[in-house]
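Students often ask why inverse folding is considered easier than folding. One informal answer: many sequences map to the same fold, so there is more than one right answer. In these notes we will look at a single instance of the problem. The structure comes first.
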C-alpha cells in the first residue's frame, strides 16, 4: 500500500507548491508588463502543452516534475528575443531593476504566503496537539536536576509561552542554536508555579535532528495503562486471565504510571513471572503474567495492546490571531532552516543532515497516513523550505538573481554578461553537487539497517 501512497502524497505535496511558486513569478511578471512565453511544471521533454490567454502563453507539463520555470521575453536568449517593437517594451531586461527584483522574489514570497495560509487555516479550524505536561524522569537527567517533576506542565520557555509539545521543542531548539540556557516556567498539578533552569552546558552538543527533549529527560505525559485488544488467545496475557479494559495499577509492587513504564518492566522480565495488579469493573485483581521472548526481535512481550495516550490540547484561534500565528510559525520555520544551513556551512552540523526529494517523498507518505492535519502541516513546512532554499545566493536560483540585481542597485550598473554566464555555470555545477549529496544522504538514510535489539532495546538476561 505504501508503494502507492508515498509517490501520490509526494506529488500532492510538491506539485501544488511548485505551481504556486511559478505562479508568483508569472503573475508579477504580467503585472510588470512582461510577456510570458511559457509556464512549465517540470523540466525536460514536454509531454503536454496548451496555449491560453491574450499572449498565447504556452502552459506545459514536462518529463521531470522536480521543479518548474516561467520563460519570458528576454533579449539575452536568442530563442526568447523580442522581435517586434511592441514586444521590446515587454522584454524582461528592459524593465527597471526594482521590477525585476519583484518578479524574481515573487516565487519565494508565494511559498511563504502558502505556508502562512496553511498554518493559519489549521489554527483557525482547530488542531489537537500534544500538551506540555511531562512524565516522571530519571533522577540523573538534566530536567530532574533542574527541579522538573513528573506531572508538571511547562507553560513558557525563556519567556515565550508554550501550549503544545511542538512549541516546547521549538523554543528549546532555539536555545540549542543560540548556545544559551533554558528557563522553564512550570505549573504543578496543584496549581503552584515555579521556574526550572537548564544551563547552557546541559544543551551543549545536542543533535537538533534527534530527540533533544528526551536527552534532557523531558518526555510526554502519558495516561495510566489500559489493556486493549489481546490478539493471541494462547499468549501470556490471555493465559493469565487478562481482559480488554483492565487498568494496570502495579507490577511486582511497583506502580505503573504509563505505557512506557509497563514496557520497561515487561522488557526486563527475562522469562520471569510478573505479578500484575489490575482494576476491572471496580475490583482489584492480581494476575501472574510470564512474558515470552519474541525470537524475531529479541524483545520480551505479553501479547496485549497497551493503551496509554498523551494529554492533548486543542489549539483554535480566531481568523486574525490564526493568520498571525501562521505568520509566526512560518517565520520561525524559516529562521530555523537558515540556522541549519548556516551551521552546515560552518561545519557545526554534519552535511549528512542535508536531505532531498527522496526524504521529502518518504515523509510525505508517512504524514499522509497520519491524517490531513499532519499532512497539511508537512506541506507548510516544505513550502517554507522551498522559499528559503530559493532565496539562497546561489546562481541559477532566485536568490542568485536577486544578488545580481542588488549589486546593480548598489553600483548603478548591471553586471557584465560574461560574469553572469560564468556565475550561472558555476551555480549549475554547485547545485548538481548539492543534489547529488542530498540524494546520497537520502539513499544512505533509507538503506541503513535499523538499530538491532542487541545494541538498543534488548535486555541481556543472566543466562544469555
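Output (designed amino acids):
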Amino acid at each position: 500500500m505504501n508503494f502507492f501512497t508515498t509517490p501520490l502524497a509526494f506529488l500532492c505535496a510538491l506539485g501544488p507548491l511548485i505551481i504556486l511558486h511559478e505562479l508568483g513569478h508569472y503573475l508579477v511578471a504580467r503585472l510588470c508588463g512582461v510577456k510570458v512565453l511559457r509556464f512549465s511544471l517540470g523540466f525536460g521533454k514536454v509531454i503536454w502543452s496548451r496555449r491560453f490567454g491574450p499572449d498565447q502563453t504556452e502552459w506545459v507539463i514536462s518529463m521531470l516534475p522536480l521543479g518548474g520555470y516561467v520563460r519570458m521575453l528576454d533579449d539575452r536568449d536568442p530563442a526568447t528575443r523580442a522581435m517586434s517593437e511592441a514586444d521590446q517594451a515587454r522584454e524582461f531586461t528592459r524593465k527597471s531593476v526594482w521590477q525585476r527584483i519583484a518578479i524574481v522574489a515573487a516565487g519565494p514570497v508565494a511559498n511563504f504566503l502558502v505556508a502562512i495560509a496553511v498554518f493559519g487555516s489549521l489554527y483557525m479550524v482547530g488542531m489537537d496537539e500534544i500538551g506540555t505536561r511531562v512524565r516522571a524522569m530519571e533522577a540523573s537527567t538534566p530536567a530532574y536536576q533542574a527541579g522538573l517533576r513528573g506531572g508538571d506542565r511547562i507553560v513558557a520557555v525563556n519567556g515565550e509561552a508554550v501550549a503544545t509539545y511542538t512549541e516546547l521543542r521549538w523554543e528549546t531548539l532555539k536555545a540549542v542554536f543560540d548556545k544559551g540556557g533554558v528557563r522553564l516556567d512550570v505549573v504543578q498539578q496543584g496549581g503552584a508555579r515555579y521556574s526550572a533552569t537548564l544551563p547552557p552546558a546541559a544543551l551543549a552538543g545536542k543533535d537538533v535532528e534527534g530527540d533533544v527533549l528526551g536527552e534532557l529527560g523531558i518526555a510526554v505525559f502519558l495516561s495510566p495503562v489500559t489493556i486493549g485488544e489481546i490478539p493471541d488467545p494462547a499468549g501470556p496475557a490471555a493465559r493469565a486471565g487478562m481482559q480488554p479494559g483492565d487498568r494496570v495499577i502495579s507490577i511486582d509492587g511497583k506502580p505503573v504510571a504509563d505505557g512506557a513504564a509497563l514496557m520497561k518492566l515487561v522488557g526486563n522480565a527475562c522469562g520471569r513471572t510478573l505479578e500484575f495488579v489490575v482494576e476491572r469493573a471496580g475490583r482489584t485483581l492480581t494476575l501472574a503474567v510470564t512474558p515470552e521472548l519474541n525470537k524475531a526481535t529479541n524483545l520480551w512481550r505479553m501479547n496485549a495492546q497497551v493503551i496509554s495516550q498523551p494529554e492533548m490540547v486543542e489549539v483554535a484561534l480566531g481568523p486574525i490571531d490564526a493568520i498571525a500565528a501562521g505568520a509566526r510559525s512560518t517565520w520561525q520555520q524559516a529562521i530555523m532552516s537558515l540556522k541549519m544551513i548556516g551551521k552546515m556551512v560552518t561545519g557545526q552540523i554534519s552535511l549528512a543532515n542535508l536531505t532531498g526529494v527522496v526524504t521529502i517523498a518518504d515523509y510525505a507518505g508517512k504524514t499522509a497516513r497520519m491524517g490531513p492535519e499532519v499532512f497539511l502541516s508537512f506541506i507548510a513546512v516544505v513550502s517554507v523550505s522551498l522559499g528559503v532554499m530559493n532565496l539562497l545566493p546561489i546562481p541559477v536560483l532566485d536568490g542568485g538573481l536577486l544578488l545580481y540585481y542588488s549589486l546593480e542597485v548598489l553600483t548603478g550598473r548591471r553586471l557584465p554578461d560574461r560574469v553572469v554566464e560564468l556565475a550561472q555555470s558555476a551555480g549549475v555545477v554547485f547545485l548538481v553537487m548539492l543534489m547529488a549529496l542530498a540524494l546520497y544522504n537520502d539513499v544512505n538514510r533509507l538503506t541503513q539497517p535499523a538499530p538491532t535489539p542487541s545494541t538498543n532495546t534488548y535486555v541481556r538476561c543472566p543466562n544469555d
